[in-house]
Amino acid sequence: MSELSVMFGRPPRASAVDDRFELEEAALEELGIESYPVPLDPIVLGDVERALRRLPRPDGRAWLYRGWMLREEEYAALHEAVADRGEELVVDPESFAEATYAPRYLPRLGDRTAPARWTEDEDVAAAWELAQELGPPPWIVKDWVKSAKEDWFGACLVPAGADFRAFSAICERLLDLRGDAFETGFVIKKHLELATLPGWTADRRRVTDEHRLVFWEGDLVAHAPYLDVDSALDDPGRFAPLGRLVESPFFTADVARLAAGGWTVIEINDGGSSTFPEQLDPRDVYRAIAASRG
Question: What are the two backbone dihedrals, phi and then psi, of residue 86, each rounded to the nearest 5 degrees?
């Protein structure tokens, strides 16, 4: 089996942002796994070969991408460029899309997640019509990849009793905040009441009991509270079936405890661009990956 190395994709000024990849680099060094940085700008601008010049000479490696989020076409170009070197990117473009775009993974989750509808464009009126199939609000609005939780009340939560005018204002605010990064269309999900923990977030929301789970080749290999709070995940094995539902070798699942009891899946994310929570030791993830590759 090919030797595994990790490729960290970061923009030039990433040192000013806490993406915690320095901790992962230290963990990989401790475990004896090679890692190398590549600049994101050439990848985004369509010159992937220039980005890969930072890597060592090809030697049949299998590369695991860890870095800032790429668009599907950018990731596909990276995959092709790595293949042109005679090496491989462990997560192929199809798997990347499977774990990145909500309309790809939501049908697989069934009743493990909130009911949802989606559009394939920025048509707010069409989104409103589809949302009626979910019953009356509250709803959550996002694009195919991300929400604007940083503006929870202005660009994410559609409150109970909202009419089309209020819904439209929230969608337009989401479009404004996401800008050129807005992905494809709207996703509207039924809002579920989540169990809360002591404390408040910076945007005046109660802290919810959410956890991020890391899956590698179908197995749950690590998990931690999404926020840096005191919350243990009882019986993590209940989430093991998710590893067989999502057709990607490396992804994360965000799950939350419901106020009424039970759990729900909030979203699925590609493992390469998922931030590891504060309480998750990256060595746990990379040990599991290394062990699976012999």
Answer: 80, 20
